[in-house]
Amino acid sequence: MNSTIAGPATEPRPAFWYGLPDGYVRLSLHPSLERVENLAAQVRALPDAVRERAESAFRFYAGILTLFNDQEVQGCAIGLHPDGEGGISFSVLTVSTVPVTGVDPKLVLAGLLGTPGERPPGETLTPVELPCGLGFLSETERRTTAPGRPPEGADGPPQGTVWQGTVALTGAGTPDIIVVQLVTAAVELAADYRDVLLGTAATLTFSDPAHPEGPEEEDPPGWAPAGGTVRDIFG
């Protein structure tokens, strides 16, 4: 794991912190209006040959930001790693919260897990011990729409298979359920990405790494915003 802690420093004091794995670059979920306008101007200034693809990517980025903000996503990072065959393996790591009001989040988490018969075919669920408490690891492979234009004469968009791993947990530092999820099309590397996912979840803490004895000083740049109250669950 590298020393980067996901999240901008301009948000309210976070309820939890986590580290980004090596090879992951954080995606800004709250870019300034100036930054967006500058990016749009750069896209418009591109040559005609590449402008259409750039504009499509820009619209996709804007749509993803809207979706993530609606779904309480606290952080997102893109992973770029060698695939062992001379190419690059891509993955997306997200950390989000599921707000819970008026009830114990542990009970809600147990309800969300359901029974084996209620889970989608092929999905596995495993309890995992994490430094911040008990979590649950869900893994599944599913078909989804692949990026790019449909082949000539195709009836619909291209399809592909992705591996999706999810760790759901909660703790004394937050009234919400925290969800750490990793998705990649490199299904043959699922075991490696499972380790990345669990390694990320293991860094999650409700105690400010910059101020382990208490939040008496202002936060330094780089701490992840999640709102709420900071509490040390390690005693």
Question: Could you give the topology of this structure?
Answer:
Blueprint: E1 24-27, H1 33-44, H2 48-70, E2 73-82, E3 88-98, H3 105-113, E4 124-130, E5 133-145, E6 159-171, E7 174-184, H4 190-203
Antiparallel strand pairs: 1-2, 2-3, 3-7, 4-5, 5-6, 6-7
Molecular structure report:
This protein has helices spanning 33-44, 48-70, 105-113, 190-203, and strands at 24-27, 73-82, 88-98, 124-130, 133-145, 159-171, 174-184. With 235 residues, it is of the alpha+beta class. A hairpin with a 2-residue loop joins strand 4 (124-130) and strand 5 (133-145). Helix 1 runs antiparallel to helix 2. It is globular and about 55 Å long.
- Flag low-confidence runs: 2-10, 215-235
In DSSP terms (H or I, runs of 4 or more residues), the helix count works out at 4
How far is the N terminus from the C terminus?
Answer: 24 Å
By oligomeric state, this entry counts as single chain
What characterizes the major β-sheet? Answer: 7 strands, antiparallel
Strand segment tally: 7
How big a fraction of the residues is strand? 25-35%
String of helices and strands? EHHEEHEEEEH
Mean pLDDT: 75
Percent helix range: 10-25%
What structural class do helix, strand and pairing data support? Answer: alpha+beta
**Strand order of the biggest β-sheet:** 1-2-3-7-6-5-4
Shape: globular
Instruction: Provide the gyration radius in Å.
Output: 19 Å
